[in-house]
Amino acid sequence: MVENTHDRVRHEVRIPDHFRRAHLPECGGDTVYVACSTLGFSKHSLDDALRTIREMRFTKADLAIHAVGPHLTPAEVAADPGRAAQVLKAANLPLAAIHLDTGDVTPPEARLHLRAVSRLARVSATPLLTVPGAAAGADFDAEVYRLTEWVKIAASEGVILTVETHSATITADPLGAAELCRRVPGLFLTLDPSHYQVGAHGAVNYDALFPLVRHTRLRDTGATPEQFQVRIGQGLLEYGRLVSQLEKCRYDRALTVDYRDVADSAFPIEPEVRKLKYLLESLV
Q1: Angle value at C-alpha 49, between 48 and 55, nearest 5 degrees
Q2: How confident is the model at residue 263, as a pLDDT?
Q3: Domain range summary for the chain, segments of one domain joined by +
Q4: Which of 2, 31, 131, 256 has the fewest CB atoms below 10 angstroms from its CB?
């Protein structure tokens, strides 16, 4: 695997000690497992995607519920939550997390969809929801207000809310991601390190975010945006180091294989899903 290019790191974020003590609970243990995103099989029906993930012997799935997506949508869950629950029960595959994107709807509709999906998470024994942050450049105080409300909605169903690290959102800067969690009690992060590898400022040091991480999504990534998703071994991500950093924080949740089966992919996705699964399992 290509060596990590630490000499290209341009930013570093530090979380103050007092914030660690006041805001960060201890993680529960050291049981880390490998899950698979349903977006790796977006050309299949949801039933077939979940069956394929199960047949590949993944421990759990990471279910995408997107307004513009190949499988369940938030509107469908809100309209018929019982049917959505039955689909997941029939799949006989536990969920590590749900990746919710409510899309371009009004704030009341988004809250309605969040509540419905949070309830689905509770019914399906899914511990965690991941949502995108506001677009880069958005009003930070307004985003704090929105996510504070969303954390309360998720918590009312016993579900942890995380915001994903993404180069197109307010979490593109690790400082912004840490500040969101500082100002929104109960909010944590879903770490997608690819976005810190090929963001607007080049590779970014995000080590200090590890104590805030409650979910992780992974693929191999090169040095440029055009190399966001590359074959295993052709990118720059150091999985061993990442797992080691998580272990130091007593991370006890999923490592999700998150290769996306997009229309313009330069290579077949399923073999890379398998390879990353075996690689991650060898590390945990």
Answers
A1: 85
A2: 77
A3: 6-16+28-283
A4: 31
